[in-house]
Structures are given as structure tokens and as C-alpha cells.
């Protein structure tokens, strides 16, 4: 059987990465988290004190940056100029600036090339915002994963608490809603369900049920 390409898009906190990882494991595919790549650029901008509003400086930064994904103990990790930033890119500070960074055309174009190269051989589950619409419009299976804003904020809150961050649920809800708005309203490759994507609402689903639903979609086509 030919190794296929599965694209999973959706708003922040819908469970994309958790579910995508399990789907990849079940199929023995590689999981590629494209959000981590945008977060890595945002981290580098913060590290170098570059404002995302300064598009020229952001374009120059992106040109000189080396972002690499690698896998350790089955987990995707990411480096920026050789430094492993896998944990640092997950802080609330980075979440607050990443949508402004990802709206910059030079940033998107650089990462787009990288993402397409990574998917070329097939056998991948790639998650993000524009995978089915823009990065891999010919993906074999396209999923648009959603959940209610309350449920997404609750999940993100638990995740952050486990990592030791003090979080306020209401504030988190507002931040997630703002990020979705920015991601949906940007000009280039906005967050949108592809016409041929299957919508899955995970609000009342367990992780296992969401994984099964995607595997079923995959099996329908193979
Ligand atoms: O998936 P995650 O929430 O980590 O993504 C962080 C941010 O990266 C998103 O809010 C969005 O601004 C950007 N992103 C994007 N396109 C993708 C993946 C992520 O614009 N394919």
C-alpha cells in the first residue's frame, strides 16, 4: 500500500497534535507539527529582540535562520540554529506573539518550502492551519478538527498547569479566541476548512475516538 499524506487542520487547542501523534503511531507514519516551526521563528524573534511588526527585520531573520526537526524517543523536537528549543516554544509568551509572526509572508514562504520537502516521500501526518488548503492541497486525507472554545481552553489550561504555568481560564479563552481570529483573518493562507476536508468535532470525544475517526477516514480511501 502506498504511504499516504494526512493533513489535519483546525483552530488552537482542538487536539490536533495529540490526535495526529496517535494517528501517526498507528500507521507507522511520521508526525510533523508545523505550528512548532512558526513557534520556533517567534522564539528566535523574541530571543533577538525583533518585533513581529518589523517585517523587514523578520524577513531577514527568517532568511538566516536554520530550523530543523528531529525525533528523539519517538517525539518530534525542534532546533533553531542548533539549539533545542522544543520546550521554550510552548510558553504563553510565544503563544501571544506567534500569530503576528505567522502572518508575515516571508516567514510563511520559507516554512512552506520546508514543509513540502518534508512531506514529499509520503507516510506523514502533518498538522497546522493551512495544510489541506495550501501546503499540501493534494493530501490523501484532509481533516478539519474543531472543539468548542470552552473545551479548548479547558484542555489548554490543564496542559499549561502540568507544565507549571499559572493560568486563568477566562484569560486563556480570550487569548485562544484572539489567536483564532488573527489566524483566520490573515491575508495569506488563513485558517480555513478545505472544501474536501472532513469536519470532526472533538468537544465530546475522547482522544481514542478522535483517532479512530481519522483512521476510519483513512481506511475509506485505501
Ligand atoms: O499549532 P500551534 O497552536 O502550535 O500553532 C501556533 C501558531 O502557528 C498558530 O496560532 C498560527 O499562527 C501558526 N500556524 C500557521 N500555520 C500552520 C501552523 C501554525 O500559521 N500551518
UniProtKB/TrEMBL annotation:
Record flagged with keyword Chaperone: no
Keywords: ATP-binding, Cytoplasm, Kinase, Nucleotide-binding, Transferase
E.C. number(s) listed in UniProt: 2.7.4.25
Gene Ontology CC entries for this record: cytosol
Domain of life, per lineage: Bacteria
Domain (Cytidylate kinase): residue spans on this chain: 6-218
An annotated GO BP: pyrimidine nucleotide metabolic process
A GO MF label: ATP binding
Localization in the cell: Cytoplasm
Keyword NAD among UniProt keywords: no
Top-rank EC class of the record's enzyme: transferase
Main location: cytoplasm
Catalyzed reactions: dCMP + ATP = dCDP + ADP; CMP + ATP = CDP + ADP
Matches recorded under InterPro entries: Cytidylate_kin, Cytidylate_kinase_dom, P-loop_NTPase
Protein family: Belongs to the cytidylate kinase family. Type 1 subfamily.
Name of the featured protein: Cytidylate kinase
Amino acid at each position: 500500500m502506498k504511504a499516504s499524506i494526512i493533513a489535519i487542520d483546525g483552530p488552537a487547542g482542538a487536539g490536533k497534535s495529540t490526535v495526529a501523534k496517535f494517528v501517526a503511531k498507528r500507521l507507522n507514519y511520521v508526525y510533523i507539527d508545523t505550528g512548532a516551526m512558526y513557534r520556533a521563528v517567534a522564539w528566535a524573534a523574541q530571543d533577538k529582540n525583533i518585533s513581529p511588526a518589523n517585517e523587514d527585520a523578520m524577513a531577514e531573520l527568517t532568511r538566516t535562520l536554520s530550523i530543523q526537526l528531529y525525533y528523539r524517543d519517538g517525539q518530534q523536537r525542534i532546533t533553531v540554529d542548533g539549539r533545542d528549543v522544543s520546550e521554550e516554544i510552548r510558553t504563553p509568551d510565544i503563544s501571544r506573539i506567534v500569530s503576528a509572526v505567522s502572518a508575515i509572508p516571508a516567514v510563511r514562504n520559507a516554512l512552506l518550502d520546508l514543509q513540502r520537502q518534508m512531506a514529499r516521500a509520503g507516510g506523514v501526518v502533518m498538522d497546522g492551519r493551512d495544510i489541506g488548503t495550501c501546503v499540501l492541497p493534494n493530501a490523501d486525507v484532509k481533516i478539519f478538527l474543531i472543539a468548542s472554545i470552552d473545551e479548548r481552553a479547558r484542555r489548554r489550561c490543564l496542559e499549561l498547569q502540568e507544565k507549571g504555568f499559572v493560568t486563568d481560564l477566562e484569560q486563556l479563552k480570550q487569548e485562544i479566541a484572539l489567536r483564532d481570529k488573527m489566524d483566520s483573518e490573515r491575508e495569506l493562507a488563513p485558517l480555513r476548512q478545505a472544501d474536501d476536508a472532513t469536519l470532526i468535532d472533538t468537544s465530546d470525544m475522547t482522544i481514542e475516538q478522535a483517532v479512530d475517526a481519522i483512521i476510519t477516514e483513512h481506511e475509506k480511501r485505501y
